[in-house]
Amino acid sequence: MAESPDGTPAKGSGGTRPVPAYRHYLPVLVSWSVATLASLALVLNLEVQNAQERIRQQAALAFASLQERVQVNDVVLEGFAAALRSLPPIDDDRVRDYARAMLARYPHIGHLAISPRVLGTGRTRFETQIRAMGYADYEVRAFAYDGDRQWRPAPEAEVHYPVAFQEPMNADAPSVLGLDLSAAPHMAAALAQALSRNATAATVPFDLSEGGRGYVLFRPICPSYQESCSGGATEVTPRLVASLVVRADALVDCEADVSADFSCTVLYEDTERGDRRLLLERRSSHRAARLERLLLPKIEIRRRVESASQPLVLATAEQLGFRAFNLIPAAAVLVVSLGGLALVLAAVRSRVRSERDREHAYQALAEERRGMDRRVQERTHELSRLNAELQQENEARQGAEERLAVKERQARRLARRILEVQEAERRALARELHDDVGQSLTAIRIHAWLIRQQAVDPASAVGRSAEAIGEVAAALYDSTHRLMRRLRPPALDDAGLTAAFQSCVTAAELESLGIRVHLRVPKEIEGLNEAISITLYRALQEGLTNVARHSGAHNVWVRLSRTDAVDPGQGETEVASLTLEVQDDGRGMAEGAASTGFGLMGLRERVDTLGGTLELDTAPDRGLTLRVRVPL
Ligand SMILES: Nc1ncnc2c1ncn2[C@@H]1O[C@H](COP(=O)(O)OP(=O)(O)OP(=O)(O)O)[C@@H](O)[C@H]1O
Ligand SMILES: [Mg+2]
Which residues lie below 8 Å from residue 317, measured CB to CB, with a gap of 6+? Predict the structure, then answer.
């Protein structure tokens, strides 16, 4: 690995700084937040649309109820007027039944009334007539709608329209009998409009005398025998005016929703005259929170009622609140989103963890690698030092080996020389013994024989001594001869190797020990150089002596064979050699015994000086084979 000089990992070699954990989590959290907010926005948007739709439907229902009741007002009043037109007496039971039926059916209608046209001059008579009909306290009166809201006698006027019939008419029902329509300005205005157009006209909204807010519809009624009250050839002033009181609180089915800031308003809007007044207002008690006002829309719907007589407008407004929403889908989105976030965070966490582990492993590896590099450097250094030492030792050993080889060569030369000298010495010694001691002993024997011959009596002391001297000399001669043969086998000099081997076998006297000797020596092996002959002879001598001394064998086989040189062109180069084998069938050599004596050791040195080999082939109770091979 590439390293900077201070040992830290170099840039670009994998030693990057670990990515901080927030870098893994931040994108996930941002994406999650965006996705969650988008999903929530989608769900909430759907909820808002649902709520808007619901509000629109509610507004439509409210408007339908208002529209229907406004039409009902016209129709009921028209029906009432029609009944009166054909039934001149106003207090007819059938008129009352009709009125009752309508009131029972339509709760928003406060009451139905009939007001005849009464001239100021006929007022007292009129009051008297009505009182005569059973209404004892009847009088033409006025109500201070804009003042102290008290009843008082109607002021004098040219024409009065006092209420002479009302339904409901019972003890509980508030009485408006005697109310002069033309005495109240707002009623007088509507009445004038109705009379001038001969059509239904509505007053502006006002606080009713019996309480509550409402307005009144007036319908002039002409006598049935006339085509119309006005517009015809003869203009006739209507004799009666039918009126219908509308109670605002029951006019529209407009219930406050659970939503915040709901309002339902019915307005009187006369666009021709630019008159705009409040008829009814309903508001929810719950106020919208600031956050709701900030985040959620306010839905406002405004519709004008289709009616010629009643210029009404329904305005609904609703500020959406959180309570209007079904939060289960949003909660489900949130739960699913949180679950997803948990899964993703778990995955990211495991990724961060594995990255951290990898980073730690990498750092440990880098550290290990640095340690290893250090150790390798130390080892390399150590190795090169050892190498240098080894080289020195090698050189020293080579020098020593060379010196040793020189020494060995010298030692071998010396050994060969010693053996040559030894053999020469033995030969000289044998010659000396033969020439000197042998001749002397022969002379002694001759002299002893002569003394015996010259002795008077051979049995005399002189004769016996001479005989004894002759016998000792003869024995000494035999010993000297044996010694001579031992020092220098005569056969080697005289008859050659085959005869020398034979004589060696004879001299070993193995037969006397019960050991049969099987000698096989080829006749053609003659004329060898002396060193080889002597070595082979000494080898046989040592081999037979060891058989006699150590083997306990019954047989011994002596074999001499020659191996010719192999043609260098056909196989391995091998010089011609002679091999002597002395094999017995005795107990075999005990382990470690080879190093105990000197015989085999000396023989090995002898063989070595000739460049030959000595092998021992033995096993317990399977005899021993001494194999000596010398190159020719
Ligand atoms: N043919 C054999 N059978 C069994 N043991 C043998 C034989 N030849 C040699 N040995 C064992 O090998 C040993 C070494 O023999 P070696 O000729 O070197 O010594 P040595 O005969 O004991 O003494 P010397 O020095 O007189 O020869 C012997 O002591 C003997 O135990
Ligand atoms: Mg020996």
Answer: 261, 262, 263, 265, 298, 299, 300, 301
